[in-house]
TrEMBL record:
Protein name from the UniProt record: L-lysine 2,3-aminomutase
Top-rank taxon: Bacteria
InterPro entries per the UniProt record, alphabetical: Aldolase_TIM, Lys_aminomutase/Glu_NH3_mut, rSAM, rSAM_sf
Example of a GO MF term: catalytic activity
Length: 454
């Protein structure tokens, strides 16, 4: 199967990429019908959290007649109530008085510090497993068989999602970033750790890189016999499908994908789709077809986000569309405990009911999806159900993946709590004093949670 194909596409799809940033916010939010005070509040939020969108999202995905309630608008534009009202008012006052940038940054950094910029011990994970002499920047070894790599040139995106748990990578603060441009260090690490069978390129978005730069990172990995798969986590299919169709290096990139497959590796294209509207333009369908034509496998995933996709009909529609175009539904995630989590989070009990209702209404081909799943410090925890055991109402959960492999696949129970929105909100049930991961993990002096394993 080849990725090449003659498809008639609108001339506008071949235009060059153009990004809009916070300096364009006032103009764009006015287009959404916001008043002066509302626009100022949005600018205040964008002083703390990153904002970036592009011409494709603005012109092709957002229904401006429905803004600011359009789901893609809410997916990409800051909302005035995403942060505490006091913080927003304080920054708005500074903006209104044209305060110096240094003063604005100081206040913004104070607010960011309270938003848990690195959930699940992300910075701690930059330290590879015990026994390695030096940490490797931009490399995370979270699970025995999986290494995450953050290429330096991939630490931005075609557009930023308002819910993004990696928001700290995009705010311009060096202390909050982790990335590497040294692929040789990663190759050396993988040769020392043959248990690693999969490398995930993430960020940011690796597909922001040009084809030749991406090849410099990926091609050296193809010589590692113990490596079975290369994964690429990306939002590019939704936010800039031109990357695979009309961009100058689209064909070069797809030839690289073919090279990975020809080397006997599984190329897993981990596509982030948060709403069915992102699949509407024909350009996306052509991009999907071309990627699949290289032999790559496209798996789809997204978090459950209040006010954007907290509706089982939305998820069922999305999964059916993905299956129809040959993609594999993979994960429904729970919004992580970072950034504006209080604004976007859906309680676990409600999340489970949304997942169950959507799952019930699709065919078995779409039931490859797993969720609702929390990517927490000890691993990925799935909410399997709500039931009653010995007269006590409980959540039934299990680890899909875990830093302690002994936890994987073992069901456990937690007290039912209709307000709980994250793993660490849960308490042991049925007379237990600790949840299973608390028996395998312990807090060190820094307060970070590490595996208490030999």
């Amino acid at each position: 199967m080849s990725f090449t194909h003659d498809t008639a596409l609108p001339a506008s799809t071949g235009r060059r990429f153009r990004a809009y940033t916070s300096k364009h916010l006032d103009e764009l939010t006015a287009r959404a019908g916001l008043g002066d005070d509302e626009r100022l509040a949005v600018r205040a939020v964008a002083t703390v959290l990153p904002f970036r969108v592009n011409t494709y999202v603005v012109d092709e995905l957002i229904d401006w007649d429905a803004a600011p309630n359009d789901p893609i608008y809410r997916l990409t534009f800051p909302q005035a109530d995403m942060l505490p009202a006091g913080d927003v008012a304080r920054i708005a006052d500074l903006l209104r008085s044209d305060a110096p940038r240094k003063e604005l940054n100081l206040v913004a950094n104070q607010v960011r510090a309270g938003l848990n910029p690195h959930p699940a011990g992300q910075m701690d994970l930059n330290v590879p497993k015990a026994g390695d002499e030096e940490p490797i920047p931009g490399v995370q070894h979270k699970y025995a068989e999986t290494v995450l790599f953050f290429p330096k040139q991939g630490q931005t995106c075609h557009a930023y999602c308002t819910y993004c748990f990696r928001w700290a990578q995009f705010v311009g603060e060096p202390d909050l970033k982790f990335a590497s441009s040294d692929i040789d260090q990663l190759v050396s690490y993988l040769r020392q750790h043959p248990e690693v069978s999969s490398v995930l390129f993430t960020g940011g978005d690796p597909m922001i890189m040009g084809g030749s730069v991406l090849a410099r990172y990926i091609e050296p990995l193809l010589e590692i016999e113990t490596l079975e798969s290369v994964r690429i986590g990306t939002k590019s299919l939704a936010y800039w499908p031109q990357r695979f169709v009309t961009d100058p290096d689209a064909d070069e990139t797809l030839r690289l994908f073919e090279k990975v497959v020809a080397a006997g590796k599984n190329l897993a294209f981990m596509a982030h789709f948060s709403h069915p509207n992102e699949m509407a333009p024909p350009l996306v369908h052509e991009a999907v077809r071309r990627i699949r034509g290289t032999g790559a496998v496209i798996r789809t995933q997204a978090p459950l986000i209040r006010t954007i996709n907290d509706d089982p009909a939305v998820w069922a529609d999305m999964w059916r569309t993905h299956v129809r175009h040959g993609m594999i539904p993979y994960y429904m995630f729970v919004e992580r405990d970072t950034g504006p989590q209080d604004y976007f989070a859906v309680p676990l009990a409600e999340a489970y009911e949304i997942f169950r209702a959507a799952y019930n209404s699709v065919s078995g081909l779409a039931r490859t999806v797993r969720g609702p799943s929390m990517s927490a410090t000890p691993g990925k925890v799935c909410v399997d159900g709500i039931t009653e055991v010995n007269g006590e109402k409980v959540f039934v959960l299990h680890f899909i993946q875990a830093r302690d492999p002994e936890l994987v696949g073992r069901p456990f129970f937690a007290k039912y709590d209709e307000k709980a929105a994250w793993l660490f909100d849960l308490e042991p049930a049925l007379g237990a004093t600790r949840l299973p991961y608390e028996e395998a993990f312990t807090a060190d002096a820094s307060g970070l949670v590490r595996a208490a394993l030999p």
